[in-house]
Amino acid sequence: MSQAELVLFLEASVRLGIPLALAALGETISERSGVINIGLEGSIIGGALGGALGALAFESAGLGVVTGAAAGVLAASVFAVFAVWLGADQIITGTAVTIGGLGMTGAIYQARFGVTGTELSLPTLAAVRVPLLADIPIVGSALFDQAPTAYLAYLLAPTLWYFLFHTPYGLELRAVGEAPDAAEAAGVRVLLVRLATTLFGGLLAGIAGAHLALAHAGTFAENMSAGKGFIAIAVVVLGRWNPVLVLLAALFFGAASALQFFLQALGLDLAYQIFLALPYLLTLAALAGWVGRARAPAALALPWESKR
Amino acid sequence: MNPTLVRLRGVERRFGSVVALAGAELELRAGEVHGVLGANGAGKSTLFNVLGGLLRPDGGTIEVDGRPVVLTSPRDAWAHGIGLVHQHFTLVPTLTVSENLALGLRGALEPGLSVQRAVRELIERTGLDVPLQPRVEELGVGDRQRIEILKALLRDPRILVLDEPTAVLTPDEIERLFDLLRELAGEGRAVTLVAHKLDDVLAVADRVTVLRAGRTVLTAASGEADQSELVRAMVGDGVVDTIALGLGPPPSGAPPSAPHAERWVVRLRGVDVEDERGWRLHKVDLDVAGGEVVGVAGVEGNGQRELARVLAGRLEATRGTVELPEQIGFIPQNRSTEGLIGEFDLVENVALALYRKPEFHSGPWLRWDGMKRVAEEIRSRYEVAAPSVATLGGALSGGNQQRVIVGRELEMSADLLVAENPTRGLDVSAAAFVHDELRRLASEGVAIVLLSTDLDEVLALSGRIFAIAAGTLRPVSSRARDRAGIGALMLRGERRTAVDSALERGVDDG
């Protein structure tokens, strides 16, 4: 790989990693409070369509991100009502939200643009070059010549880390995810915390979806989320529920996806699927405790109800 | 007279069809230690969960400072200065001690006072010493109890309630706790100690309230009420189980007879159990003969759990030799999670212990008719209050679950019975039933190992007694056969972490 190719590879890694990072950071927060939102994919595809429609309506990619975020929250609110508020099984509810989200967005898209769908051309999120930082050799332009949503992910990771581990609110949130009964006895409003974290997860997944439509493709396509919600959940595990590590894990997954394109582009006769599988193998290793100690929040996926 | 801080009137609470409180009354005054007595199941914990805002009452009123209040959450209770030290720990095991203490303190401390400093000052003032850095899951129950008490005190409550705090403390620690309670009351707080043992309450309380079957049956200054009056108030006309109430000397009939060497059924030699957190058991030697009851006393979390499971054949020793009989009965501590499967009916639950026996097989198929007959027999012989054997295990009260488990394990005609806190949480008559059955079984030649955190139970039922502390088993000599003697043995080696055992092991191996 020449230096130019390396720069291109790194840039693609970051570009592919950012939507994963955004969705995974939100999921980290909800999982820390004990909610595993398998419906994340539904929020991402909702965010993509919401972002596309918003960008068209307001003729602004920036406002598209806002409507995409709102659509992500909407999808997550379905999950929040059933799985958090009513205590339904989180896995089943999340699967329903994912399948429902994929179906609904497809239906809305076809109703709006017809079955064949003329190629949508959307206002796109322009890359913003950060002065000085972008001039760092090799990694500079990969990291700091990206859509504004990338900078959101960079800022969120340390902010969420500080929030989780150094503020009383973060402590309460973690207590809810580890031992909700104990948290309630300590005066924490368990359901309120879980509702809030679920919606926050939906918000970031919606932004991730909008990023897919507005920064990557410049268009919307059915099923364009392509399993990124599930990959994000794996990213959370590999990042050990720590926002900073989660950001790095997302970039690593992004690099693995970028690698396949490069291997194909370079005409190398390698089974690129092996590289695609690599991050998942690492995730399994992390779960099994071979890559540091990964321990899920103790009350993860357990519905909770006050005994009052 | 001291001003009244809390008055509960006619408090009622039901859980489904079970009436837990049926008109409980309570008055707590500033500057006094108030003892609340009642047999297991009398409604003590329910009453204080109502006062702590964790449960809503179905009827009755709560007054704080003479004004009626509605407590819908623990937050509300704290806003009125009510602090509860729960019987079941409400700590987050995976968080550190500091984090647990800080949890929910947002806005509760004086401005400018950091949690760290507040904690350090409190530890100094109260002498409740706990390490702050380790995660709670690494600590023993004694430490956890101290943390619970610190957690409540950090919010500076005017009304402090401790629900059965003595169960996991050694006699020495209990004495120190009582000194602290008196001091706290002396500062003008209303301190309430909930217990089911008379001695504990009479040792420290200024006034006593007795609950029975969800009602307040007696309130008196502790000097005015004599013991027999209190006992009658606690148990009514029911069975008096002197053991469960911690009364007087053990009944005769369990002489520490020398075991017959030719009838050894259990032989443990140099048994170690080790897990990732360190030693659970260390160099345990134990022989048990048929017909004797061997008691193992200790504060919870010192290796009883592992010892019970090694004896029951459920856990393999890391090192050492273990000889066990073929048929072993096991009464585990957690009836509802380990003893019975809540979603299984009584026949299925009984079958779990029996299905391997050849008489319940025909070819590869189970013979449900035979196991159903056994279940029917257990239900009638052990007076299980269940409409039929098709009743689900989870639908039974704790006492009736225990009757099923005891019955099932006895029906196995085992050579060894391992009983782990077999009467915890049972009402008086259920506890008496279990005690009688253990005695009867021993007289029939079965070897029994009783592991209990209840010293009085161990003293009353056992021939030979061992104390377990930090995974080490020590015999209790006949001279040390009392609360103080065993307590001293139990104290040894408390609070041992993985680091300590690793260090010890290093010394040992080197």
Under CATH, the topology of chain A can be stated as ABC transporter involved in vitamin B12 uptake, BtuC
- Amount of helix of chain B: 25-40%
- Order of helices and strands of chain A, N to C? HHHHEHEHHHHHHH
Tell me the overall shape of chain A: globular
CATH class of chain A: Mainly Alpha
Helix count of chain B, per DSSP?
Answer: 18
**Unreliable segments of 5+ consecutive residues of chain B:** 248-256, 493-510
Give the class of chain B from helix and strand content and strand pairing. alpha/beta
Radius of gyration over C-alpha positions of chain B, nearest whole angstrom: 24 Å
Rg of chain A is 19 Å
Q: What would you call the structural class of chain A?
A: mainly alpha
What is the oligomeric state here?
heterodimer
Architecture per CATH nomenclature, i.e. the level-2 architecture of the largest domain in chain B: 3-Layer(aba) Sandwich
3D structure, described in words:
The complex is a heterodimer of chains A (308) and B (510). Chain A has 308 residues and is an all-alpha fold. Chain A has helices spanning 3-32, 40-58, 61-85, 90-113, 139-144, 148-166, 168-178, 180-185, 190-217, 228-238, 243-265, 273-287, and strands at residues 128-129, 145-146. Chain A contains twelve helices and two strands; from the N terminus they run ααααβαβααααααα. In chain A, strands 1-2 form a two-stranded antiparallel sheet. The N and C termini of chain A lie far apart (64 Å). Chain B is α/β, with parallel strands linked by helices and 510 residues long. Chain B has two domains: 4-238, Rossmann fold (3-Layer(aba) Sandwich), CATH 3.40.50.300; 262-340 and 396-509, 3-Layer(aba) Sandwich (Rossmann fold), CATH 3.40.50. Chain B is built from 18 helices and 21 strands. In chain B, the strands form five sheets. A six-stranded mixed sheet of chain B has the order 6-7-8-3-9-10, sandwiched between helices. In chain B, strands 15-18-19-13-20-21 form a six-stranded mixed sheet, with helices on both faces. A four-stranded antiparallel sheet of chain B has the order 2-1-4-5, covered by helices on one side. In chain B, helix 12 (346-354) crosses helix 13 and helix 14 (398-411) runs parallel beside helix 15 (428-443). The longest helix of chain B is centred in the middle third of the chain and has 16 residues, at 171-186. The radius of gyration of chain B is 24 Å and the shape is globular. The A-B interface holds A 168-169, 171-172, 174-175, 178-179, 181-189, 295, 297-298, 307-308 and B 52, 54-56, 72-75, 78, 84, 86, 89-95, 99, 102-106, 151.
